[in-house]
Amino acid sequence: MAKLGRKRTESGTSTGSGKAPVPVEESVKLKPKITLANGVAIIVGTIIGSGIFLTPKGVLEGSGSVGFSLIIWAACGIVSLIGALCYAELGTTIVTSGGDYIYILRAFGPFWAFLQLWVNLIVIRPTAQAIVSLVFANYALQPFFPSCVVPDPAVRLLAALCIGILTFVNVMNVRWATRIQDIFTIAKLLALVIIIMTGLVMLGMGKISNFTDSFEGTTRDVGKASLAFYSGLFAYAGWNFLNFVTEELKDPYRNLPRAIYISIPIVTTIYVLVNLAYFTVVSPFEILESNAVAVTFGDKVFGVMAWIVPVFVSLSCFGTVNGLLFTSGRLFFVGAREQQLPNFLAMIHVERFTPMPALLFTAGLSLLMLVSSDMFALLNYMSFAQWLSVGASIAGMLWLRYKEPDRPRPIKFHPIIPVTFLMFVGFLLILPLHAAPMDTGIGLLIICTGIPVYIIGLAWKKKPKAFVRFIVNLTRKGQKLMSVVPQETPSKD
Fold first, then answer.
1. How far apart, in whole angstroms, are the C-alpha atoms of residue 167 and residue 124?
2. How far is the first Cα of the chain from the last one, in angstroms, to the nearest whole number?
3. Which of 310, 408, 426, 461 sits at 20 to 30 Å (Cα–Cα) from 228?
4. CA–CA separation, 58 vs 17, rounded Å?
5. How far apart, in whole angstroms, are the C-alpha atoms of residue 240 and residue 90?
6. Please, are residues 13 and 25 in contact by the beta-carbon 8 Å criterion?
7. Angle at CA 390, nearest 5°, toward 384 and 395?
8. Nearest to 23 by CA among 47, 42, 5
9. What pTM did the predictor assign?
10. How far apart are CA 90 and CA 204, in angstroms?
11. Which range among 48-52, 120-124, 186-190, 214-218 shows the weakest confidence by mean pLDDT?
12. pLDDT for res 236
């Protein structure tokens, strides 16, 4: 980018609160500060959230038996790894942050990419961040309310504080954010290792009663088995999140696939062993009666120290909120840089090199969601949209192989890998149309609300001059207030 005294953009590039513009060098851009270890921490830390502490009930309920439940946990890990391999190819072929959004944009054009961005903007990202922060707050406060329900206002206040603190950290320094991710990933892994070791000790002491006839009661209902897979895959969600920050990853051609190859097997092994530990201590009946199997496990094993399990869950969720905010800010930043969101969201702080407006925007939406009582329902509606987005990205990868065969591809897998994964995604998309047509229909309706927004906001080019001037002036004032400037658009990968 040229200096401001020599070059201006339509949105304005004046910064600071003084009268003269601040000279800004070309180096004002997202910096590659994420190491391989940071990348592993982002993937592992985002995947391991509240899911492994809460969803074993759903997997067992759908599978019908202990043995089949463990198989489903392993199978979900294999499915996630296959999908992650496809994303390793995508991320090294299109080395641009933005994940699914940028892949759909490059393969299928702006309209379909905008719909994906729109759904993430209004529902998926802010809702997920709000829900995980609420789970964090609930479990963090639980030790202080051992004999009663935690007051809802206190939970929402602490959840808002969680989002506020982590947004401040992400705005101030990328390294601070990645360091928090590293620390809390280590903390949650330590917590799960304690659960695993406790279970293995109990197993070594001969506590094997829950594994007798472990496949007895296995469901033959395909619908129930698919619901078990849904619950398991929910716990694995986040395996593609490093692709949202590719531009900030050091040596992405090597470190992106390496981070994936390291992370997914670690998570899969831990998840299977944690469930093995759960079944060693807690009976299948008790798991089905519990809303948080990890807490039930702690009550049965740790006695007066059972409070440490809610603390483990809260630490795990805190790290997950950090990962969600970090990647969400980059998603909306890239969407604005591609001129599908207001230009102001594509600005970077001139000293901290963080996408401050995009981070504050996603945090604000999350705080608004904390006021809503319907956000859990919204998240259910959007499971269909999330898998549709993943399927479109993999289909886009195959289309780009055909459309642009000469494009450099440092990693290229045999077609059977993406085709196999697409078949599984198709199963996950078709089944809800029969099993839950209402939820799927509402999800599709929410996606379609982006169509008029696209027509008015993007397709309509000749907007009133007064409106354009208002937006430009508002953008300039925002730049002066936050000391941010636009990044020069990178080359199209």
1. 18
2. 19
3. 310
4. 54
5. 10
6. no
7. 120
8. 5
9. 0.86
10. 44
11. 48-52
12. 92
